[in-house]
Amino acid sequence: MSPHAALPPEGAAPGLGRPGAGGVSPHTALPPGGAAPGLGRLGARGRAPGRSRSDGLLPLLVAIAIAAAAAAVVLMPGALVAAAATAHVAFAAGIMPLIFGAMMHFVPVLTRSRAPASSLHLLPFVALAAGLLATAAFALQDFFRAGIHGGAGLGLPAALAMATWIVARGRATLGAPHPCLRWYLAAVLLLALALGAVLAMDAWPQQRGALRVFHLHLNTLGFIGLTALGTLAVLLPTAAGRPDEAAAARLRRDLPAAVLGVLLVAAGAAWFKPLAYAGMALLLVPVLRLGLAWWLRFRPAVARIHGAAPSLALALFGLTLLLLLGAGHASGRLAGGDAIFAFVLAFLLPLVTGAVSQLLPLWLRPGVQTPWHRTARERLGRFGALRALAFVAAGLAVGGGWRDAAWLAAAALAVFVVQAVGACARRADRSGA
Fold it and tell me: Which end of the chain has the least Cβ crowding within 10 Å, N or C?
């Protein structure tokens, strides 16, 4: 029997499947509907749909993203490099390659299609090269022009290639793809627009400052924000251990407001402030709607001390606070550099550590879920709520101008790194046994 034969056309996320012959699902025994993409059913031969060499790349991309985040956190309190260089370490060199790799893993499951071609596996590393060039441009002033053009020149084709692949997979889907696919496509197109704005700076030098602000907001709220919101809607139910039947409908309904909100914030911050306020209000609609759905459906899970679910919920809470504080940033009461660092600490760190807590065991050992996977998730999610609270608290303090609070986030991230290394070491022990 085909591993995709019984998938619903568009309702539930094609994540966790029905229980197998023994009454236990190969992935934590959740029913279909609202489960995270990327945790697909196993076929008759024990092979997960969408599984490919990209699965093997993801632990490496996770390590790069965590290392980049750690470097950015350590650089925040001092003035060793420009704030823009620190931000590009986290965003361009860390998160962008990880998102590309994760999309290569998730899209085949969202579209019930084959694994990506081998050539596509280069895209995360092209994105990494682009991010390193952009970081070097701000860290080494003599390299600024070459680094900026080189980074945007590499990143833009990579983003367009990813968008083209997503569109092709969506069109080839038998039935309708999961609505999360459109969030990924919108996110990548906003990234392409952000990189195009960088390349437009030389042609429109009098608007260089405005284009830089436009680029920044499209990257943070657009590329990263939309990717995160689309994934969170289906990942948290998996981490919570129960489905969210309304996730697909909510994703379809909320995408237009989210995209328009991002565009208004970016354009308003660059050229006309009232648009930014309207965009923030519009973007808050899907964010608050998702938060309310979680509170009503998953309150016991997100209120735990341990696990991935509380970390993911606190990431959304951090994003909500940052959007509310955005009014202060738009009016000039909150420094731009502090706002960027607050985004890294209060949103990105609880998001990445929460998602990695849930997904890294699967990426380390794809296939049938075993007691090892459960133990690894427990280890990675231990004190997940306290860790995420430290990230959010540090982000709010840094956003208010106290950059030394970044050391609190550094300590919490160090604890997570120890937990992740322990999980990987246990995998190595079991592999060698």
Answer: C
Range with lowest mean pLDDT among 24-33, 91-100, 301-310: 24-33
Sketch the domain layout of the chain as residue ranges: 304-433
Angle between helix axes 308-330 and 225-240 (nearest 10 degrees) is: 150
Handedness of CA 196, 222, 168, 171 (dihedral sign): negative
The secondary structure element, H or E, covering residue 308 is helix 308-330
Tell me which residue of 398, 423, 344, 323 sits closest to 93, measured CA to CA: 344
CB 163 within 8 A of CB 185: yes
Please tell me whether residue 203 adopts helix, strand or coil conformation.
Answer: coil
Please name the residues in contact with 101: beta carbons below 8 A apart, sequence gap of 6 or more: 54, 57, 58, 61, 124
Q: Of 383, 361, 242, nearest to 304 (Cα)? A: 383
Query: For position 329, what pLDDT does the model report?
Result: 64
CB atoms inside a 10 Å sphere around CB 238: 27
The structure tokens listed for 108 are 């085949």
Amino acid of residue 317: F
Gyration radius of the chain over CA positions: 20
Burial of 216 (0-12, 13-18, 19+ CB in 10 A): buried
* Spatial distance between the Cα atoms of 267 and 225, rounded to a whole number of angstroms: 16
Within 8 A by CB and 6+ apart from 305, the residues are: 383, 384, 385, 386
The sign of the torsion formed by the CA atoms of 82, 86, 87, 92 equals: positive
Rounded alpha-carbon distances, angstroms, from residue 121 to 58, 144, 166, 359: 11, 29, 14, 19
Q: Let me know: does 393 contact 405? Beta carbons within 8 Å.
A: yes
CA terminus-to-terminus distance, the chain: 33
Task: Provide the token pair at 2.
Answer: 């085909």
Q: Residues 192-213: what's their mean pLDDT?
A: 94
Q: Which two tokens stand for residue 22?
A: 């023994």
The answer to whether the beta carbons of residues 348 and 224 sit under 8 Å apart is yes
Task: Kindly state the DSSP code that residue 34 receives in the 8-state scheme.
Answer: S
**Mean pLDDT over the full length of the chain:** 84
Residue 183 phi/psi, 5-degree rounding, is -65, -40
Q: Is 426 exposed, middle or buried (0-12, 13-18, 19+ CB in 10 A)?
A: middle
